[in-house]
Amino acid sequence: MRFVKKAALSLMLSLLWAGAASAEPVTLKFATQNAENAFTTENAVKPWIKQIEEDSQGTLKIDLYANQTLAKGPQVWNAIRNGIADMGWITMGMYAGMNPELEITGLDLTGYRGAMDGTPLLWKVYDSFDSVRKPFAANRIIALWMLEKSANLLISKKPVRTLEDIKGMKIRCTVPYVPWVKALGGIPVVMAMPDVYTSLQKGIIDGLLGDWEVQEGFRFYDVAGYATANIPIGAPVFCIAMNKSSYERLPDAAKAAIDKHSGLAGSMFMAEHFSYDTLQLKDKCLPHMKELIVLSDEERLRWSERTGRPLWEEWLKDMEKKGKKNAPAILEMMLK
């Protein structure tokens, strides 16, 4: 009888181990508006996904839905909240008024140079103020990081060398940049990046604010051959968010893998590989462009006199009207 009990126990354990070994990993759907072969997808998003899968001990698989195949760019946040996507990449500049205190990043702030030092500042603000965290409460924030500021370009169909050249131009931008475009005399047009190429072709817009990654990935130089560099401008916020229920349903090993690549650590990976590394695309783009224009120091100062302190003060007044009492402290923090 003792032998039979041992044999039965051994068989039961074997079946349990076999079941665990053969269990299928949980599959998550990751949505992004960017192309699957885009530089930022290949250089940052895919490696980040691979790291999580490898660290999950076989419990997790993340399927990438690129090129707006699961949700349009401006709809990704809601697609995650509603469970259409489990995770996704989002440019927060497409969500007007959702988190007004973070729209400060679109201003010409002198306290940081780019993605690598701007991202820790961003997390300091996020961790310090409930009023910044609260607008994100519908989803789980996995990563927040900045665009590489020095990669910013004004891409245009005509050369832009002076303030006078911008006057009346219809310029595609995201929400944080709307005051900046207006201050320089342009007309801001908010639209998702995948819609920009045809809008340039049709004359709906005259140019856009972008960087070397979108210049190379979307080939805007084919329809807008000029770009102005060293413009005095801020940097938008990018985000990876996750559906809260999707996270809670995961096995512990899968949660641990996501947690390992979340927060500041995951954000710094993205700051480097999604943002900073795009500077290397400049040499790929230049042969296709008509001209890369560099503002003179004197001309850049003319732009800064309109886009610097005057816009900080305007932003503070707007935040005061909206009852955002933390705005002065946030501005001071971002300027350090």
Keywords:
single chain, 336 residues, alpha/beta, six-stranded mixed beta sheet, five-stranded mixed beta sheet, 16 helices, 11 strands, 16% strand, globular
SSE blueprint:
Elements: H1 2-22, E1 26-31, H2 39-55, E2 60-65, H3 76-81, E3 87-91, H4 115-128, H5 130-133, E4 140-146, E5 153-156, H6 163-166, E6 170-173, H7 178-183, E7 187-190, H8 196-202, E8 207-210, H9 212-217, E9 226-229, E10 237-242, H10 244-248, H11 252-260, H12 263-275, H13 282-285, E11 291-294, H14 297-307, H15 309-321, H16 327-335
Parallel strand pairs: 1-2, 1-3, 6-7, 6-8, 9-11
Antiparallel strand pairs: 3-10, 4-10, 5-8, 5-9
Summarize the model shown.
The protein is an alpha/beta fold and 336 residues long. Helix content is 44%, strand content 16%. A six-stranded mixed beta sheet has the order 7-6-8-5-9-11. A five-stranded mixed beta sheet has the order 2-1-3-10-4.
How are the strands of the largest sheet arranged? Answer: 7-6-8-5-9-11
Distance between the termini: 76 Å
Strand content: 15-25%
Q: Give the uncertain stretches in residue-range form.
A: 13-22
Structural class: alpha/beta
Output the helix-strand order: HEHEHEHHEEHEHEHEHEEHHHHEHHH
The average pLDDT is 92
Number of helices: 16
Radius of gyration: 23 Å
